[in-house]
Amino acid sequence: MDENKMVAGKVKKPGKRGRKPAKIDLKAKLERSRQSARECRARKKLRYQYLEELVSSKERAICALREELDMYRQWCSAMDQGKIPSEIKALLTADEQKIPASGGGGTKTSKNKNSQI
């Protein structure tokens, strides 16, 4: 009982605590480390490829939106000068052809959500 110590009512045995290190072959350990590094590099490469594709798609979307904005700016400047762009005329005539001239008798009206005044 001399080698065992009493701590807080429990018998404590001498020696190291925890898991004992397994005797692993050094070459196998190095090979596992190399394989892990290869897998990590492959994951990193895939992640960067995905991010580069994402960036390029966003850049294409930005370019398309800038072109559309420029088109709208040109339309506005033309309308400020009193001219109606041909594109807007085409849109207006297309909308007029879609709406039938029935006098509005057969159309359904939706209730306005804010009509509770």
Automatic annotation (TrEMBL):
<feature type="compositionally biased region" description="Low complexity">
    <location>
        <begin position="108"/>
        <end position="117"/>
    </location>
</feature>
<feature type="region of interest" description="Disordered">
    <location>
        <begin position="1"/>
        <end position="23"/>
    </location>
</feature>
<protein>
    <recommendedName>
        <fullName>cAMP-responsive element-binding protein-like 2</fullName>
    </recommendedName>
</protein>
<dbReference type="InterPro" id="IPR039250">
    <property type="entry name" value="CREBL2/REPTOR-BP"/>
</dbReference>
<keyword id="KW-0221">Differentiation</keyword>
<dbReference type="GO" id="GO:0030154">
    <property type="term" value="P:cell differentiation"/>
</dbReference>
<keyword id="KW-0238">DNA-binding</keyword>
<keyword id="KW-0805">Transcription regulation</keyword>
<dbReference type="InterPro" id="IPR004827">
    <property type="entry name" value="bZIP"/>
</dbReference>
<dbReference type="GO" id="GO:0003700">
    <property type="term" value="F:DNA-binding transcription factor activity"/>
</dbReference>
<dbReference type="GO" id="GO:0005634">
    <property type="term" value="C:nucleus"/>
</dbReference>
<feature type="region of interest" description="Disordered">
    <location>
        <begin position="98"/>
        <end position="117"/>
    </location>
</feature>
<keyword id="KW-0539">Nucleus</keyword>
<dbReference type="GO" id="GO:0003677">
    <property type="term" value="F:DNA binding"/>
</dbReference>
<dbReference type="InterPro" id="IPR046347">
    <property type="entry name" value="bZIP_sf"/>
</dbReference>
<feature type="domain" description="BZIP">
    <location>
        <begin position="26"/>
        <end position="75"/>
    </location>
</feature>
<comment type="similarity">
    <text>Belongs to the bZIP family. ATF subfamily.</text>
</comment>
<keyword id="KW-0804">Transcription</keyword>
<dbReference type="Pfam" id="PF07716">
    <property type="entry name" value="bZIP_2"/>
</dbReference>
<feature type="compositionally biased region" description="Basic residues">
    <location>
        <begin position="10"/>
        <end position="21"/>
    </location>
</feature>
<keyword id="KW-0010">Activator</keyword>
